[in-house]
């Protein structure tokens, strides 16, 4: 059943400074980024092992470094159960004019 993945798109190129991810039963999460105009050429950016929180949502706060992106691909590589869920993703940062 794993990996499972999804891609989010920003309307402009952004510099991400912080991500907050609310999930359930996610064991290992990998985040890849792309600065392309299309969702291609992803590079691995962040990989985290999340703490199992029985009966409540996982709340993972990630302070980002080198977070220039137009697209983010989230890949759940393993979970604590057969089913896992990502309930919300919040990204903080600024729009930038030139990718770097």
UniProtKB/TrEMBL annotation:
Q: Which InterPro entries match?
A: Galactose-bd-like_sf, IFT25
Q: Which residues form the signal peptide?
A: none
GO biological process, alphabetically ordered: intraciliary transport
Q: Name one GO cellular component term.
A: cilium
Annotated SUPFAM superfamilies: Galactose-binding domain-like
Protein name per its UniProtKB record: Intraflagellar transport protein 25 homolog isoform X3
């Amino acid at each position: 059943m794993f990996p499972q993945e999804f891609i989010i798109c920003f309307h402009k190129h952004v510099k991400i400074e912080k991500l907050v991810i609310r999930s359930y039963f996610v064991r290992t999460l990998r985040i890849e980024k792309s600065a392309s105009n299309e969702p291609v050429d992803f590079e691995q950016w962040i990989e985290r092992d999340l703490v199992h929180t029985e009966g409540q949502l996982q709340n993972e706060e990630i302070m980002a470094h080198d977070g220039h992106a137009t697209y983010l691909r989230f890949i759940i590589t393993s979970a604590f159960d057969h089913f896992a869920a990502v309930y919300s993703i919040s990204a903080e940062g600024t729009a930038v004019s030139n990718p770097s």
